[in-house]
Write a structure and sequence with these properties.
The chain is of the alpha/beta class. It has helices at about 40-50, 115-135, 150-160, 175-180, 195-200, 215-225, 265, 270-285, 300-310, and strands at about 1-5, 15-20, 30-40, 60-70, 80-85, 95-100, 105, 140-145, 165-170, 185-190, 210-215, 225-235, 260, 295-300, 315-320.
Length: about 325
């Protein structure tokens, strides 16, 4: 029997329940994976709440573990291999699962399963944002909201490696320490801080080249005022409330802004994009350019993990351990 977490119905974290089910043998081009670590992400909360669909009722879009069986036509992986994955099909909240073999990325010896499961999806998201959404390089100045969060820390580290200047927002001094350790050059501290004014001061009134907003709510409208003319705002989540309606006049012509709403799940549905960017993230972990770590919760405490992430009490990445 396999332990899974199933969503009884869309709503609060209490609707997540632990069950035991039979798992069929892997089909053609599939592997069976025994999870040793499972990533917890905001997309899991969006699916749990009903904002995004959850086709089979089992959340989770990334994990890592050991290959225990493989179906026909799987030639590049062997039983006993350590692998990690991110993306669809959803269903990582399980002690074991079947997975398309092309999703499974072999882990370098220097990368633990916990590091991979806490970082892979966030790392791919950061690479997508730094390459595809806006080309970040030396001389770029960027604004990262929630810079102490799992994605915020990864985005900060990778942007700094490219020679960019990172301005981050955090809710407390304790979280500021995490963002500083990730390499943020400037931090704006406090939930009610006037980050628009602070960004203007830090950029001598110019504004940043690109801003990443995973907060949503009223923060998104304020973020528009932080970006220079012909810059880009990437709306990547809504941890602070629904994305508000924006009139096109808010973007231009006076401001001349670009607004992006990129989806990492759409990005990783392309096999070439996924495997290239996943390999980039795993290499960064192996080289020490990224630090993979997270707060671990037993799978049976999934409700607590969701509450901590949703409330903002957590720091950095969260993991479930079967």
């Amino acid at each position: 029997m396999v332990a899974i977490v199933r969503l009884k119905s869309p709503g609060g974290a209490e609707n997540l329940v632990l069950e035991n089910v039979e798992l069929p043998a892997p089909g053609a081009n599939e592997i069976r994976l025994r999870h040793t670590a499972i990533g917890v992400n905001f997309i899991d909360i969006y699916q749990r709440s009903g904002l995004y669909p959850l086709p089979d009722g089992i959340p989770g879009v990334e994990g890592a573990g050991i290959v225990t069986a493989k179906g026909a036509d799987v030639t590049e992986l062997s039983v006993g291999d350590r692998v990690a994955y991110a993306g669809a099909p959803v269903g990582a909240y399980a002690s074991e699962r079947n997975l398309p073999a092309w999703r499974a990325m072999p882990l370098p010896d220097a990368v633990s399963e916990a590091s991979a499961a806490s970082t892979l999806l966030k790392g791919i998201t950061a690479v997508m944002l730094l390459n595809r959404t806006y080309a970040v390089g030396a001389g770029t100045t960027l604004l990262v909201h929630s810079a102490a969060g799992g994605l915020g820390q990864v985005l900060t580290r990778l942007a700094r490696l490219r020679g960019a200047t990172v301005i981050g927002t955090v809710s407390s001094e304790a979280k500021a320490e995490l963002a500083r350790a990730a390499g943020a050059h400037h931090l704006i501290v406090g939930r009610d801080a006037d980050f628009v004014d602070a960004v203007k001061r830090l950029t001598d009134g110019r504004g940043v080249d690109v801003a990443y907003d995973g907060v949503g709510g009223k923060t998104l409208a304020q973020t528009l005022a932080c970006v220079r003319p012909f810059g880009t705002v990437a709306s990547i989540g809504q941890s602070g409330g629904p994305i508000p309606s924006l009139a096109v006049e808010e973007l231009g012509p006076r401001r001349s802004l670009s607004l992006a709403r990129p989806s990492v799940m759409a990005h990783v549905n392309d096999v070439a994009d996924y495997r290239r960017d996943a390999a980039t993230v795993l290499a960064a972990l192996a080289d020490g350019d990224l630090v993979g770590h997270g707060t671990a919760y037993p799978l049976a405490r999934v409700v607590e993990a969701h509450i901590d992430l949703e409330s903002g009490r957590s720091r950095g990445a969260l993991l479930l351990v079967p």
